Amino acid sequence: MIAQIAIGLAVLAGAGWGALALWFQAPLGPRARGVVAALWLALGAAALAGLAWGAWRPAAFFGALLLGLLAWWKLGVRPSNERQWMPEVARQTQGAVDGDILTLRNVRNFEWRSRTDFDPRWETRVYDLSRLASVDLLLSYWGRPAVAHAMVSFGFDDGQYLVFSVEIRRKLNDTFSEIGGFFRRYELAVLASSEEDSLRVRTNVRGEDGYLYRVHMPEGAARKLLLSYVDTANQLVRQPRFYNTLTANCTTIVYRLADQIVPGLPMDYRLLLSGYLPEYLYRLGALEGADSPQAYRQAGHYTDRARATADAADFSRNIRRGVPGV
C-alpha cells in the first residue's frame, strides 16, 4: 500500500511537471503544445487509474515515457545566445580590466519615448575604478509590494553612474510568465546601462514605482562587487544559462555576488520577496541615515522626482535629492 501511494505521488508529480515542460518548451505552435500537454496529463491520469485498480503496467509505461522526457529536457533544451532577441536585450555587456581602468562594451543607453518608440544606442564606456565612490540599490515596483526588480548603480566621483541589472533575455514576441521562469523559458543576461536609460524608462515610460537606497559597504567591497558583475556578464557571453524564477533571478544573484564580498550573509525570505529587500539591508546595518526602514523607504521614493525631470542630464542628481546617506 505504501509503495502504491509513493508511486502514485511520483506519477502525479511527473504528470504536472511534464505537462508544463511540454507547454513551455515543446517545439510546436501554441495549439499543438496544448494538445500534447493534455495528452501527457491523460497518460498520467490513466497510470493513476491503473494503480487504483491494482494494475502496474500503465504506471510502468508512464515511467518509461517520463524518463524519455527527462532525457529530452536534459539534452535537448539548452540555453543559447543565438536567438531573435527583443531590441533592449539584443546585445550582451562585456568587460575588460587593465589596472584601475574598466572598459565595458555594449553599455545600453537608449533614448525612450514610449515602450515601442526609442533610439537604440549601445556604447563602449571607460570607467576609472579608483574613482568609484558609491553603491546604490534600486528597486522598481509594478504592482505587488512583495515583488520588485532589483538593480545596483555604481557611482563615480566624476559624475558617472553605471547600472547593472540581471535581466530576463526575452525573445521577440515573448511575454513574461513567472511559471515559465521555472521551465527554461528565458535566458539570463547581466546588462550594464546608464541610469537615464534603465531607471528612467521604468518610471517615465513603463509607469513603475522607483526607490533608491544608498548601501554602505566595507572598504574595497564596492569594487569587488562591480567586478563580480563584470565577470558574471563575461561568463554569460561565453556560456549562456537559463533564468530561473527562484534560483537565478535579480535578487538571488545579487545575494550570491554580495556573499563573495561579505561571506556568511544570512539567508532570508526577503531575498525571494525582493520588494522587502530594504528591511533585510537595514537589518544588516547597510542602510544609514534614517531611523527605520519605513523612513528610508519614504525618503528614497524617487518616482515623482524622476517624472518631473525633463532633461536626462539632470536625472541622476534629481532622483537622489533627500535620500539618506547620499
Short description:
41% of the residues lie in helices and 20% in strands.
Notes on the structure:
The structure is a single chain. This protein is an alpha+beta fold and 326 residues long. The chain has 2 domains: 1-76, no CATH class; 87-320, no CATH class. The chain has 11 helices and 10 strands. It has helices at 2-25, 30-52, 57-76, 195-198, 200-205, 221-238, 250-261, 277-284, 293-300, 303-307, 315-319; strands at 94-98, 101-108, 111-112, 118-119, 122-128, 132-141, 149-156, 161-169, 187-193, 209-214. The chain has a 5-stranded antiparallel β-sheet with strand order 9-8-7-6-10. Strands 1-2-5 form a 3-stranded antiparallel β-sheet. Strands 3-4 form a two-stranded antiparallel ribbon. Helix 2 (30-52) packs antiparallel against helix 3 (57-76). The relative contact order is 0.11. This is Lnb N-terminal periplasmic domain-containing protein. The chain crosses the membrane at residues 6-24, 36-53.
Relevant terms:
single chain, three-stranded antiparallel β-sheet, 2 domains, five-stranded antiparallel β-sheet
